[in-house]
UniProtKB/TrEMBL annotation:
Physiological role: Removes the 2'-phosphate from RNA via an intermediate in which the phosphate is ADP-ribosylated by NAD followed by a presumed transesterification to release the RNA and generate ADP-ribose 1''-2''-cyclic phosphate (APPR>P). May function as an ADP-ribosylase.
Gene3D superfamilies, alphabetized: 3.20.170.30, RNA 2'-phosphotransferase, Tpt1/KptA family, N-terminal domain
Gene: kptA
Cross-referenced Pfam families: PTS_2-RNA (PF01885)
Species the sequence originates in: Catenibacterium faecis
Record's protein name: Probable RNA 2'-phosphotransferase
């Protein structure tokens, strides 16, 4: 099921065309076509959605369509709520990216938004997926006061477009 979950993430966040589907304007894809492409049952898909520790996925009201809640590299509208963030959030990355981040800030790269964690532990986990982890503390209070916009995804991930270097502080 782990492989199927990763494939689902790939399809819904990056390449729906890889299985011949189009996402609608709110990033939902057809459940039936996804079941066929992944060769799984609706019970399997329900289990993937329910047991995903990051709560990456959500169904529409009648469970005929499914979407990834954030992390897209394709232009979609997942109905993000603009919010005032907590005063401090964290960003986990790998140590090999620290020099370029200190020079350029945190950029969304291939994704639409930069993802921010509410605690150091989660940010460390995120960073460790890419190598030896490094965590930045982000002065989101000052960013917000300076006019930067923040959004909260359906699964409670804070998102923003860019984090300039002046708002970064080393956590680890």
């Amino acid at each position: 099921m782990e492989r199927k979950s990763r494939r689902l993430s790939y399809i819904l966040r990056h390449h729906p065309e890889s299985i011949g589907i189009k996402l609608d304007e709110h990033a939902y894809g057809d459940v039936q076509k996804i079941l066929e492409a992944l060769n799984i049952t609706i019970e399997d898909l329900d289990m993937i959605v329910r047991e995903d520790e990051k709560q990456r996925y959500s169904y529409n009201g009648d469970h005929t369509r499914i979407r990834a809640n954030q992390g897209h590299s394709i232009p979609v509208n997942v109905d993000l709520k603009e919010v005032q963030p907590p005063d401090i959030l964290y960003h986990g990355t790998a140590t090999r990216f620290v020099p370029s981040i200190l020079e350029e800030g945190i950029l969304s790269q291939t994704r639409i938004y930069v993802h921010l964690s509410q605690d150091i532990e989660t940010a460390t986990k995120v960073g460790s997926r890419h190598g030896k982890p490094y965590v930045f503390t982000i002065d989101t209070k000052q960013m917000y006061e300076d006019g930067y916009k923040f959004y909260l995804s359906e699964n409670n991930i804070y998102l923003t477009k860019i984090i300039p270097t002046k708002y970064l502080k080393a956590s680890t």
